[in-house]
Amino acid sequence: KEKVEITKAQRALMKVIVDAYNRHKIPQDVAKKLLQDQYSAEENFLLLTEMATSQVQVLVEFTKNIPGFLSLNHEDQIALLKGSAVEAMFLRSAQVFSQKMPNGHTEVLEERIRKSGISEEFMTPMFNFYKSIGELHMIEEEQALLTAITILTPDRPFVKDQQAVERLQEPMLEVLRKLCVLQHPQEPQYFARLLGRLTELRTLNHYHAEMLTSWRMNDHKFTPLLCEIWDVQ
Ligand SMILES: O=C(Nc1ccccc1)[C@H](C1CCCCC1)n1c(-c2ccc(Cl)cc2)nc2cc(F)c(F)cc21
């Protein structure tokens, strides 16, 4: 039986990542707004583009706190952010969607999102992902580490020094692996299930641009930052 223990250095790394992660709370406000009122497709689209734009800014702040990230080659820093921003947003959406809410609130939230303007064809893959994240009942340390691991994916397009990114991602994977063993002793496969969600997350990446351009309304306006990050317009 492997005696798993998180070292002082690993605890320090985890604290840096969780503190940085806790500084981005925006989508909670989105959930609250969506629960308060029903909006038109146009209002929902505007809300999404505003939220997604601020999510990118917050993601940059979070990423700057990942030890070693700022020492990477500058083009590679951009390539990692550009390559992970959409996934980070869907991961964050899933975490917000699966957080504990008063009875019936999740159903209302799901209904509001289903009617927000997104085309029908994307609902199943999106909510399947949200529910599969929910079933994991991740603690915030796992959520924060999973987001950092997603950003530090070495094989993003245009990354030149993949080894340098691997050297940053590996310690995160090791801490997460230990955390999973300690948090879910009955589930030896929990860590593998967690990483499996990142594969599901990449499939949502394929849909994201079309999810936006097929939003049930005319004349989709994007912010310059979103055009950059979301491959739209
Ligand atoms: O805002 C959002 N997500 C966000 C996340 C992270 C940071 C900032 C924003 C949007 C809403 C959706 C309804 C209209 C208004 C925006 N959102 C999404 C979502 C995102 C992108 C596409 Cl293409 C489709 C759906 N899934 C969500 C789940 C939640 F529990 C949820 F609360 C908000 C969610």
How is this structure best described in words?
The chain is mainly α and 233 residues long. Helix content is 69%, strand content 0%. It has helices spanning 8-21, 26-36, 41-64, 74-97, 105-114, 123-134, 140-151, 162-183, 190-213, 224-230. Helix 7 (140-151) runs antiparallel to helix 8. The radius of gyration is 18 Å and the shape is globular. The mean pLDDT is 93. The structure holds ligand 9ND. The ligand O=C(Nc1ccccc1)[C@H](C1CCCCC1)n1c(-c2ccc(Cl)cc2)nc2cc(F)c(F)cc21 is lined by residues 26-27, 30-31, 34, 44, 47-48, 51-52, 55, 89, 92-93, 96-97, 109, 113, 116, 118, 208, 211-212.
Largest sheet: none
Task: Tell me the β content.
Answer: under 5%
Question: What oligomeric assembly is this protein in?
Answer: single chain
Secondary structure tally: strands: 0
* Elements, N to C (H/E): HHHHHHHHHH
Cα(first) to Cα(last) distance is 55 Å
Secondary-structure class: mainly alpha
* Average pLDDT over all residues: 93
Output the keywords:
single chain, 233 residues, mainly alpha, 69% helix, globular, binds the ligand O=C(Nc1ccccc1)[C@H](C1CCCCC1)n1c(-c2ccc(Cl)cc2)nc2cc(F)c(F)cc21
